[in-house]
Specification:
Number of helices of chain B: 15
Distance between the termini of chain B: 32 Å
Order of helices and strands of chain B: HHEHEHEEEHEHEEHEHEHHHHEHHEEH
CATH topology of one domain in chain B: Amidase signature (AS) enzymes
Number of helices of chain A: 3
Oligomer: heterodimer
CATH class of one domain in chain B: Alpha Beta
Strand content of chain A: under 5%
CATH architecture of one domain in chain B: Alpha-Beta Complex
Low-confidence stretches of chain A: none
Strand order of the largest sheet of chain A: 1-2
Strand order of the largest sheet of chain B: 1-3-2-6-8-7-12-13-11-9-10
Distance between the termini of chain A: 45 Å
Order of helices and strands of chain A: HHHEE
Structural class of chain B: alpha/beta
Radius of gyration of chain B: 22 Å
Mean pLDDT of chain B: 95
Largest sheet of chain A: 2 strands, antiparallel
Shape of chain B: globular
Strand content of chain B: 15-25%
Number of strands of chain B: 13
Largest interface: A-B, 46 and 64 residues
Structural class of chain A: mainly alpha
């Protein structure tokens, strides 16, 4: 079942920090939850059911009339944590 | 006109009654749009400190109130029924210019840049918006205890939860702080609080209502649904928001499903589901209500219904972890800055997300990881397909399927702090989300718990696009009360 190391690794993958006290708690809860959802493993299903096609099918949208350029720029840019004119300002990633 | 004795207050009216009150009848006009708005908003302000149903009550939109009044004055009965009707809107549905936080610190400062499709439709019908309602953070939970801004209390007993995740919307309607409301339903989030608060909640057919402008939780389950005082109102609200939308490619074209049968003659009971966790008085109330409807009752069997709850949670975790990856503190929402870009992500996400949200993101990443995806996610999808087959087979012999909405009445705040025990409450409601079929919760009276009279709900499921059968059955339950 879940180990503290595994939960730590998952947290790193999803970019969340978990302190040690919560790590223990999460691991314990995961054991109970994974134990419960793990019952599915034993469920026997007809072989053809996995290949069943859903009733919905993919559709493409025609880009008929795009909105006027710049219509939402200010509304979107006003939510940026940091902006440089209409551009989103972010940390430099590549150093040279 | 002044109110006569014995007449309900304006904010206590249903949509249909309020629409009538706004129009000139034989006794003149009972209310203006402004008076109806004031009645709802005054009640919202009066009750909100104790119930915490709204995260924000909006200032009056004078232009919208005037326009609605003018439209009713000009068009009379030709004006839409929702014209001038004050509605409560769940905090994960975008209203242009207003905060839409999904009850999360992550989006506490996020202001919607456009209207959700359902809001556009309601605006076009002349509806008014009282405020945005409390919910479980990102619609993850079942009691509104996971809101980053505090729990919504049950109007029938302030020590109990309102249900969730649309707890604020259900409490607002039950306490007459709005005429009706919109919620969203991923695994029962409209029907669960409707049951706990004693109102009607409908999850429409998957694809019946557009999710454009609705903050995504688990995209293969999410639907917007009405929370109302009557089944009749749920139908009015559904008709106003349903329809194909190019911005949500899962919305259904007319005629994809051909079921045209509207009436209900036979009702199916999945007996094997009614054994565990149901209190004797709940089972008794359920059986008596079913028997009172005058339908032919048939026992049916849905063998995959019990393991389906596990399948539901696997798919929910997986889709939630994918959907919530977009909140990174870079473009909008909670943004904390550290030394490196990785620190920016870590700090923003750790501070922005609450515990249940973190839990589901972690579990979703686990069930999708390469070593486990076959055992969990793919198996869950196969179980989902099998469940759909079993429901389709059952609907060959019955018109609707009935269970209680929830195994119990509303529980005490804090009583289900262990996450798994809360997940198990969803055993009846998740089925409709897994198979994409519509389902409704309608009040079937009250049960006594520790000195409180608490509402309980009857739950009906119908085939795709057969909402009419749900409304017919729900009306029959209302009549039998």
């Amino acid at each position: 079942m879940a180990t503290v190391e595994e939960v730590k690794k998952l947290a790193a993958l999803v970019r969340i920090s978990i302190d040690d006290a919560d790590l223990e708690k999460f691991t314990k809860e995961f054991d109970a939850i994974l134990g419960y959802i793990g019952q599915l493993e034993k469920l026997e299903l007809p072989l053809d059911v996995s290949s069943e096609k859903p009733a919905l099918h993919n559709v493409m949208r025609i880009e008929g009339e795009p909105h006027a350029g710049g219509k939402y720029t200010e509304a979107l840019a006003s939510q940026f944590p940091a902006r440089d004119g209409d551009a989103l300002a972010v940390k430099q990633i590549i150093t040279h | 006109m002044s109110m006569s004795n014995g007449m309900s207050k304006l904010n206590e009216l249903t949509i249909r009654e309020a629409a009538r009150a706004l129009r000139v009848g034989s006794a003149g006009r009972r209310s203006t749009v402004r008076e109806l708005w004031d009645a709802c908003v005054q009640e919202a302000h009066a009750r909100n400190p104790e119930l915490h149903a709204y995260l924000e009550i909006f200032d009056a939109d004078e232009a919208a109130i005037l326009a609605a009044q003018k439209r009713i004055d000009t068009d009379g009965d030709a004006a839409p029924l929702l014209c001038g009707i004050p509605l409560a809107i769940k905090d994960n549905i975008l209203i242009e210019g207003k905060i839409a936080s999904a009850a999360s610190k992550m989006l506490e400062n996020y202001r919607a840049t456009y209207d959700a499709h359902v809001i556009e439709k309601l605006r076009a019908a002349g509806a008014l918006f009282v405020g945005r309602t409390n919910m479980d953070e990102f619609a993850l939970g079942g009691s509104t205890e996971n809101s980053a801004f505090g729990v919504t209390k049950n109007p029938h007993d302030l020590t109990r939860v309102s249900g969730g995740t649309s707890g604020g919307s259900a409490a607002a309607v039950a306490a007459h702080m709005a005429i009706a409301a919109l919620g969203t339903d991923t695994g029962g989030s409209v029907r669960n609080p409707a049951s706990y608060c004693g109102v009607v909640g409908l999850k429409p057919t998957y694809g019946a209502v557009s999710r454009s402008g609705v903050i995504a939780a688990a995209s293969s389950f999410d639907q917007v649904g009405p929370i109302t005082k009557t089944a009749d109102d749920a139908q009015i609200l559904l008709e106003a928001i349903a329809g194909i939308d190019p911005l949500d490619s899962t919305t259904l074209p007319d005629g994809l499903y051909t079921s045209k049968k509207k009436e209900v003659k036979t009702i199916g009971i999945p007996t094997e589901l009614l054994v565990e966790g149901l209190a004797p008085d709940m089972l008794k109330r359920f059986r008596e209500t079913v028997d009172s409807l005058g339908y032919e009752v048939k026992e049916i069997t849905i063998p995959s219904a019990k393991p389906a709850l596990a399948a539901y949670y696997i798919i929910n975790f997986a889709e939630v972890s994918a959907n919530l990856a977009r909140y990174d503190g870079i473009r909008y929402g909670h943004a904390e800055r550290g030394d490196t870009l990785l620190d920016d992500y870590l700090l923003s996400r750790t501070e922005g997300f609450g515990k249940e949200t973190e839990r589901r993101i972690l579990l979703g990443t686990y069930v999708l990881s390469s070593g486990y995806i076959d055992a969990y996610y793919r198996k869950a999808n196969a179980a989902r397909a099998q469940l759909r087959r079993e429901f389709e087979k059952a609907f060959e012999s019955v018109d609707i399927i009935a269970t209680p909405t929830m195994p119990t009445p509303a529980f005490t705040i804090g009583a289900k702090s262990d996450p798994l025990s809360l997940y198990l409450e969803d055993v009846f409601t998740v089925l409709a989300n897994l198979i994409g079929m519509p389902a409704i919760s309608v009040p079937m009276g009250q049960l006594e718990r520790e000195g409180s009279s608490l509402p309980v709900g009857m739950h009906f499921t119908a085939p795709q696009m057969a909402e009419d059968r749900l409304f017919a059955a729900a009306r029959a339950v209302e009549k039998a009360q």
